[in-house]
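Case study 2.
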Amino acid sequence: MQLVNEEKDFGVTVSADMKWERQCIEAVKSANKMLGLIIRNFQDKSKDTVMPLYKSLVRPHLEYCCQVWSPYLSKDINLIEGVQRSLRRATKLIKDIRHLSYDERL
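Prediction:
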């Protein structure tokens, strides 16, 4: 029998100490990759394009199985919320509302 420090099952990384730091890091990394993909590959930056892309390509990485791995440590929560704040970056892509404040853009 081989001991491992972490195991990935159904896309959720579980560590031997039952902390979710690695899962949070992986979720943030994949969500940021998707946001970068949107920024690089879509020329139409209208609200009708960017928001559905963000909701369908970025948010699922942060929400997948979150009932299981829901972060409870402040550092993990801040890490996840950092990507949620990336919505700020996504809304700045939209030409028509770029000049508005973040709250107004939401």
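The longest helix spans residues 21-41.
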